[in-house]
Amino acid sequence: MKKLLFAAVLLLSTWSAQAQIILLSNDTVYTAGPATEFEIIAYANVRNTNESPKVFRWVKLQNQVTPGWLSTICDVNLCYPDGVDSADFTLGGNAIGNVDGHFYPNNIVGTGIMRVRVYEIANPSNNVVVTFIGSTTGASVAAMSKPSLKVYPVPTDHYLYLETTPAFELAEIEIYNMIGKKVAQYKNSTMKSRISVGHLPKGQYIIRMNNGQDVLTKYFTKN
């Protein structure tokens, strides 16, 4: 019995030691759009596979953008100013959090590359590296008529403002938490609308807009 108990403890200890942060996307993620877009976003998520909360840090290893562009990283806490090159955040046990690359083209055709390392502060060897690549082109009729969804402010405390295209004026709006549970539902009525999210607990959410033919999604953070 003692041998079995020791083996079980040893197995659990080994599993705990191997628990790590994992990237829930490709190690290179792309985004593109017309130069007239306010921002283009490359989305990535990481998961803490440990049962206990861990503190992580992201650090920009590379940040190269076309002159006139701005770029930033958004994590589970907030979206940081262009000049911020690292920040810390906490993920609960088995929790998922976003680390997204945002590019602001300012009506300039060009490209941007951000390469980011995310690692556990207490164990730097527990890490992942993700590269965000954004590009823009001159606005075309097709690009300008492409369905889009803008969500702001991010993060937010009480209200979320949505801007979309005519095809989504009467779309269904659904909000999901990071484990896939639907926590709110609304009916859109105009291309510019406001919804209340003050009742939601703090955390990361996905907003989903469905008009019966196309689906648009965005991430946002509730403070």
Low-confidence stretches are 2-17, 140-145
Mean pLDDT: 84
Main β-sheet description:
5 strands, mixed
CATH fold call of the largest domain: Immunoglobulin-like
Total DSSP helices: 2
Bin the helical content.
under 10%
Per DSSP, what share of the residues sits in E-state strands of 2 or more residues? Answer: over 45%
Order of helices and strands: HEEEEEEEEEEEHEEEEEEE
- Please give the CATH class of the largest domain: Mainly Beta
Overall number of structural domains: 2
Write a structural description:
This protein is mostly beta strands. The protein has two domains: 117 residues, Immunoglobulin-like (Sandwich); 76 residues, Sandwich (Immunoglobulin-like), CATH 2.60.40.3080. The protein is 10% helix and 52% strand. The strands form five sheets. Strands 2-11-10-5-7 form a five-stranded mixed sheet, with no helix packed on it. Strands 15-14-17-18 form a four-stranded antiparallel sheet, with no helix packed on it. The protein is globular, with a radius of gyration of 20 Å. The chain starts with a helix and ends with a strand. The N terminus is likely disordered.
Short note summarizing the structure:
The protein has two helices and 18 strands. With 223 residues, the chain is mainly beta.
